[in-house]
Amino acid sequence: MRRCGDFPFFATDPFRPQHGRQEPGTRTAVAANGDVLASMLEPPTKLVIIDLNARNQPLATLARVRATQKDLRVVAFLSHVQTELATEARAAGATDVMPRSAFTQNLATILQAAKD
Fold first, then answer.
1. Could you list the residue range(s) of the whole structural domain that residue 96 is in?
2. What is the value of pTM for the model shown?
3. Residue by residue, what is the 3-state secondary structure of the chain?
4. Each residue's pLDDT tens digit in the chain (116 positions)?
5. Are 29 and 2 in contact (CB under 8 A)?
6. CB-facing half-sphere around the CA of 112: CA atoms within 13 A
7. CATH number of the CATH domain containing 54
8. Using CA atoms, how far apart are residues 31 and 61, in angstroms rounded to an integer?
9. Looking at the 3D structure of the chain, how many domains does it have?
10. Does residue 17 have a cis peptide bond before it, meaning omega lies within 30 degrees of 0?
11. 73-78 and 96-99 as β-strands: parallel, antiparallel, unpaired?
């Protein structure tokens, strides 16, 4: 997939914005793996969202993103019971790590912040 729009955000498989939560003025693209995501980051974007329960090595993808994009906001989400994975994501460079429920509730705010 290619970047689309001025304010894209990305996630590794399988996240797709649904339920009318996409912020107006944003565009989304889904990267199935770290290689595809890396290709989408040029030119740089403002936000990457990573599902830490994705099957395609989300922690390695997070580390790869952070290695090349030091100032990029990276929001990662997971099940609220996965405290060890949350710690690993923070260590890998996630800016924000949150339970899936909090992510869903705050998605509009997260996207709005990427527009500003």
1. 8-108
2. 0.75
3. CCCCCCCEEEEECCCCCCCCCCCCCCEEEEECCHHHHHHHCCCCCCEEEEECCCCCCHHHHHHHHHHHCCCCEEEEEECCCCHHHHHHHHHHCCCEEEEHHHHHHHHHHHHHHHHC
4. 333 333 334 443 333 444 445 555 556 677 777 777 887 777 777 888 888 888 788 899 899 888 888 888 999 999 899 999 999 999 999 999 999 999 999 988 888 887 76
5. yes
6. 5
7. 3.40.50.2300
8. 10
9. 1
10. no
11. parallel
Q: Decide if 13 contacts 55 (C-beta within 8 A).
A: yes
Cα distance between residue 86 and residue 98, in whole Å: 8
Terminal CA-to-CA distance of the chain, rounded, Å? Answer: 25
With 0-12 CB in 10 A as exposed, 13-18 as middle and 19+ as buried, what is 84? Answer: exposed
Does a structural domain hold residue 21?
yes
Closest to 12 (Cα-Cα) out of 39, 27, 30, 35: 30
